[in-house]
Request: fold
Amino acid sequence: MEERLLMKGNEAIGEAAIHAGCRYYFGYPITPQSELIAYMAKRLLKIKGATFIQAESEIAAINMVYGASAAGGRVMTSSSSPGISLKQEGISYLACAELPCVIVNIMRGGPGLGSIQPAQGDYFQATKGGGHGDYHLIVFAPSSVQELVDLTIRAFSLADKYRNPAMILGDGLLGQMMEPVQFKEFDEKNIPSKEDWALGSSHGRKPRRIVPFDLDPNELEKIVNKLGQKYQDMQKEVEYEVVNIDNPDIVIVAYGSIARIVKTTIQKAKQEGINIGLVRPITLYPFPYAAIEEVANKVDKFLVTEMSLGQMVEDVKLAVKGKSQVSFYGRTGGVVISPIEILQEVKKLLD
Amino acid sequence: MEERLLMKGNEAIGEAAIHAGCRYYFGYPITPQSELIAYMAKRLLKIKGATFIQAESEIAAINMVYGASAAGGRVMTSSSSPGISLKQEGISYLACAELPCVIVNIMRGGPGLGSIQPAQGDYFQATKGGGHGDYHLIVFAPSSVQELVDLTIRAFSLADKYRNPAMILGDGLLGQMMEPVQFKEFDEKNIPSKEDWALGSSHGRKPRRIVPFDLDPNELEKIVNKLGQKYQDMQKEVEYEVVNIDNPDIVIVAYGSIARIVKTTIQKAKQEGINIGLVRPITLYPFPYAAIEEVANKVDKFLVTEMSLGQMVEDVKLAVKGKSQVSFYGRTGGVVISPIEILQEVKKLLD
Amino acid sequence: MGVKKLMKQVFTKPKSLTDVPFTYCPGCHHGIIHRLVAEAMDDLNIAEDTIGIAPVGCAVFAYLFFECDMIVAAHGRAPAIATGIKRVKPDNIVFTYQGDGDLASIGTAEIVHAANRGEKITVIFVNNAIYGMTGGQMAPTTLEGQITQTSPYGRDSKTMGMPIRICELLSTLNSPAYIARVALTKPAYIVKAKKAIKKAFQYQLDGKGFALVEVLSTCPTSWGLSPKEANEWLNEKMIPYYPLGEFKNVEEVS
Amino acid sequence: MGVKKLMKQVFTKPKSLTDVPFTYCPGCHHGIIHRLVAEAMDDLNIAEDTIGIAPVGCAVFAYLFFECDMIVAAHGRAPAIATGIKRVKPDNIVFTYQGDGDLASIGTAEIVHAANRGEKITVIFVNNAIYGMTGGQMAPTTLEGQITQTSPYGRDSKTMGMPIRICELLSTLNSPAYIARVALTKPAYIVKAKKAIKKAFQYQLDGKGFALVEVLSTCPTSWGLSPKEANEWLNEKMIPYYPLGEFKNVEEVS
Amino acid sequence: MLDEIIIAGFGGQGILLMGRLIAHAGMLEGKHVAWMPSYGPEMRGGTANCTVIISSEEVASPVVPNPLSLIAMNLPSLDKFEPLVEKGGTIIVNQSLISRNIYRDDVEVVKVPANDIANELGNLRVANMVALGSYIAKSKSVKMQTVFEALEQTLGKGSEKIIELNKEALKRGEKIIIG
Amino acid sequence: MLDEIIIAGFGGQGILLMGRLIAHAGMLEGKHVAWMPSYGPEMRGGTANCTVIISSEEVASPVVPNPLSLIAMNLPSLDKFEPLVEKGGTIIVNQSLISRNIYRDDVEVVKVPANDIANELGNLRVANMVALGSYIAKSKSVKMQTVFEALEQTLGKGSEKIIELNKEALKRGEKIIIG
Amino acid sequence: MAKIIIDRERCKGCELCTLICPQKIIVMSKSFNKKSYHPAELMNPEKCTGCAFCAMTCPDVAIEVYK
Amino acid sequence: MAKIIIDRERCKGCELCTLICPQKIIVMSKSFNKKSYHPAELMNPEKCTGCAFCAMTCPDVAIEVYK
Ligand SMILES: Cc1ncc(C[n+]2csc(CCOP(=O)(O)OP(=O)(O)O)c2C)c(N)n1
Ligand SMILES: Cc1ncc(C[n+]2csc(CCOP(=O)(O)OP(=O)(O)O)c2C)c(N)n1
Ligand code: SF4
Ligand code: SF4
Ligand code: SF4
Ligand code: SF4
Ligand code: SF4
Ligand code: SF4
Ligand SMILES: [Mg+2]
Ligand SMILES: [Mg+2]
Reply:
């Protein structure tokens, strides 16, 4: 299993899901994630008892996920930006009903039909909640094909642990690129049993009900407060990477594909005697507020780089609490930021 | 016209829209805003050339709005939380295509099917963007039936001014309650002509295209940057109300129906010798960061009260920049916060 | 109650119904339909293997009434949810219970495609020509000229179209195994309705495929009629436009 | 080119097409369909009063090709957008141009209800049995056994259902004025297609109501066939399952 | 001057209209008013209720956890709201449908045989107006004459007969208080 | 050791496969590699291209604004990418389809009559392998033997004939460089 | 001999049973049940045939039939 | 006498015109156009009847017909 395979990001996600025991997939084609749905078709249609359905729409897909998860299946759906917008009602229902699943968003340029090139404009939607009401997804931001694999597997595990939907927030760059990946041994026994809550046959037990509402506000409040408590508990799952953080001139905060571009910037800067640090959130929800605040105690300049008009920058500011200056540099529309323009921005800030 | 009328919030919105020249309405029933769709049916079906359609779904409704707006119509849709989630793709398209319209969200308890009682859990969705990509709505948070009227009229005007969708973010309490309202004279001549961009007959001019995408990232970036610039320009439209802000022991930040409940708290507190200030954002986007920061320079305790697990509290923290302590008190699920519990919370904080 | 001992109980509440009293308005047919579904479950002895899906609509509370596993769907999406459940639990019996707003308006795509995929599910489709839950708005099935909250001057076929006949529309698809329309305004109709509903479950048990029973139903509250008048209106107005009968009955689905 | 002067031009690019070369693959019928739509606009002299709606799909670029006002729709929603436009501009001619993924899958509800409301719009429905734009996934219209990206072992009617016949399905509704299916693989078919498309615009001009023309179309790229083979496949496989003809033709809509 | 009233009863009893008339009359008298209904499917066969606030100052919170006045038109409503009434407040009870006594001893109680009187007037539907008449007379929060005006404006032209009947009922309710 | 290559050409020319083989071979040799395609409908009748990075260190940015090597399989591709090649870099040109000269004088140019050679081999489709062979021989970024291995693993069992043909084409391309 | 038992508290007074009973032996009570409905009552029990039409029709499953 | 003119640069070499022409007088060029397609060419112009089948079939509106 530890062999290195050259895989496309989208396909790697699919293989990782199946590796993690996912046997149900419902999706709808959209660029730049269509290789993922095609991969699931190819693989799942050959596994007995597994299900692949190209749903009639993203809305149908997310509701099939809702049903499959309620019935105890390990289930995934995937799409890209406009398709994820269509799933927002369903996502809010999943969160309310506490149904685990994995949702993949391979982001593209937006808003609107946008473009099909890589972008990161769905950060707010993913982390704050694009659907209605109080809920959060567990959001992972992989930055390599290997991380697409590892974090997809982890997403399934945390989704089950918290009975909450988890999201892989990638982009067209990660989805389309190929890199060598390895699959670590996975023991399906680690998948928690859902026999104690999932729907099915009720022989010898009371019928179960999965009910994402309560018309009595006081009862619904109990449900929402339980969710709130869960989001508190989730904070401990925060993950991030720090690079060169000891005594940098400036710290860049970036996630996903842009974070690896920043690494090239760091190398180039070193050659010019500029010392750049990096904090890379691996989970976007929970967000590494504490880690960033700690850095802010030592460093007085932050630069947030995103392929957007600036979204994560708000969370960085919330973390920094006014202790350091936080600047932003972004490109949009599917333009991938180059290492050199980031370096130029850094130089401007250090002047 | 200056006569006082006793009107239900939902109906007042409808009358205000028609008063402001809105002649096209597309919607789908949902509690607690169904009186609005019924009102539009009753009124518009009697106006020659006007259109009322109960769409097959919220998605169809927002896309009818997209078409009607593209054709130059002054147009509105309305819904409540789950229905607004379904409109997210369409909203993102409207923003990208720079099509003006008014979207009413009479919020109810969430997530999921939630409840039909008043809540404020859709703040993030409304202000940060529940749809994909970089865009913002102009978001108004009325707190009385009169404000529902005035801000609905203003929403149409700003939507046209910026060619951007505007949202009325109310809740079940405002939608259902009756208060006296007045309608000021409205001159339909103030509605800007759309002859220079709307679709129609092209006699004597080049055909026009409304295209919410560009597969060339550099071209799409220009579109997105133009939007970005527009959001900067919009900042000057910020509106808020301050109460008792000279030398308060603590300042509460609250919007919409909860803000009026806070006013009762302020009265009750005064009797006990406690001095509470209030900042009430009237526009949630643009958010009154500067106004709150100014207060934070003088007051070191803030309490944010919302009918949610805490959403606007992030914007208040962003405004305060670590200068003051920001606490939060919320109720969820459709439970309306009472003046007394807010007072108790204030006392705790002042202890 | 001593009499009970001497006499045979010939009619009582089916076991597949819980003891919770219905939340429906007086005279509303939702209650009768619930009972028939429960009787079918009793007759086939499947309650313990059945998973039901309640819609958003007056029947959102159906999860309280059926003595089997239940889940509440997002408005209109029950057929997609049923698909997800059935694919994970192919040996369970899965049914959706949907109103006409739910199934014929917002959920149009979901019902057409679940039917077309031939999902092995049973759909109970309650056509009461109105949106009951939200206070009486027009449904796709609202009759021409019918007054509702959103057709206050009567449904105008010129701008709002004519009522959609779902059975006829779905019957153009290849995959459905059973499609029928029934009513409940006479004992004879109720007997037929019972049979149709039972068949719709039996076909699922037999793996024949997608089955749907459209039940013409009253909504005295939103129609503004007494239960008695509502029954009459259904007989006089609805049945002529919505003919009763079986539209599809595939004994063997290939 | 002196010859031009002496001879009569009997065939040239219609005026309602711009000069922008099509972005479609070699042999793709989208181009022929565009030309026929433009010819209909020329013939009826309506281009300057027409508003077209491009779908998401290979024809997303249609906005570049038609010499009239155009707007790009969200995937599947063109009929709703057309409704919005037509209601604001009832004197303009409004048409949607939609693929089979767009119209028959994600946009099922929108097309059914626009048709049912009898919106006075013209729908050009391009059925190429596949999702072209996204690289060849299964469409609701994909034939049984057909191999696509998402039916890699052939469409299995047991789990994926049989192809949906949209004309037949929509013809169960009362309101549509004109519904026809045409093909383009022979000159005779093209002549008929042209007539149908023109009629679909003429009916709108006459205020008769909703009109839809389904055009069987090739996708050589996603089918993995040469343009020639694609035409043959369409003739041999698609036409038998999708019969050509007029399904609805209401001379006078009441 | 200020009153905060909860009016509660059965779905078909015309509860919401009672509240609207008080609010409307308040508005006509230049007061600040707010009206808030219960809403949703609970109305079906359950209790309907609404809250009215009349005030000389701007109405801040429209939510009334503890009303000064309660008009209870049936038993479940009384059961639900009796405990919430402010000390020293008033409860108007529809005696026709509520046989039990009031447990609270720190409130004023007015018993009105609303249905019986309505029956006498030949139309059960005006029971609400009888109770409303008693409330108006008791609380004096608005003038009866203004309620008449509000009634006319609400029901409008063409409803003269019904308006007359309603006025009659209001007066009968008033009579219970002022004799 | 590091190379950053852009391979560009016509949709049906097997551009993406060329890149995959380089990346795959790099992986087999234990190097860090990344492959990135152009994607979307531009492929239709337009140019297809992909980027490959082979490196002894972890690949940071997978985006290559200025490649060290360019394989231009047709004219529009050369037009597009020629200006972007790093000073001192290499351009492999498919001479069969590109008649024009290279404007740049600060890069090395290798002209390969890829289609002509492929034609000689009896299958136009292997023109890509001819050009790839020349690139491998020129750049030495991976060993030809490893490319053979990558080819076998990619095309798999049952494709022996095609593999042989491809190998042959690779060798013919190699020969242009090493004579 | 047959008999029906009407669950007074489940009954919502819709009157449908009174209309459907071929014997016309069900009538509405003048009194209220706890939910403020006038429940149905069996009058002339001796005429009941046990046909169960009433029970089949009752939307609130408030009627049991014995025979 | 009739004649067709093929727009060499619009043509995508799909060959559909060559198949449909009753006179079989359209052939594919060996050379490339700017977009790297082999465009169609009229061979034996004298045989052209001006039937326009080729133009009707051409998906790229690359053919004009004169008569
Ligand atoms: C997405 C969404 N839109 C709208 C609603 C509001 N809503 C609840 S039930 C309903 C329709 C009910 O009508 P129907 O399906 O006919 O059921 P009935 O109540 O008539 O049995 C609507 C529109 C909702 N809950 N969710
Ligand atoms: C909401 C949404 N979902 C999915 C997509 C991706 N997408 C673009 S076009 C398309 C389908 C194209 O197929 P079809 O409608 O048949 O048109 P064709 O390209 O075959 O002409 C899809 C799924 C999208 N753009 N938006
Ligand atoms: S509103 Fe209509 S459908 Fe709903 S419970 Fe009442 S009568 Fe039945
Ligand atoms: S992919 Fe298919 S439908 Fe799209 S342009 Fe190419 S051939 Fe035509
Ligand atoms: S069982 Fe038959 S006869 Fe007896 S009460 Fe019921 S309907 Fe009447
Ligand atoms: S049918 Fe049932 S609910 Fe209706 S009156 Fe008779 S017993 Fe009561
Ligand atoms: S006009 Fe007719 S004969 Fe002439 S080239 Fe075209 S198809 Fe052939
Ligand atoms: S049909 Fe048109 S595009 Fe195709 S080969 Fe002939 S001229 Fe060229
Ligand atoms: Mg209904
Ligand atoms: Mg298609």
Residues 3-66 of chain G form a domain with the Alpha-Beta Plaits fold (CATH 3.30.70.20). Chains G and A do not touch (no CB pair under 8 Å). The longest strand of chain G covers residues 3-6. Helices of chain G lie at 16-20, 53-57.
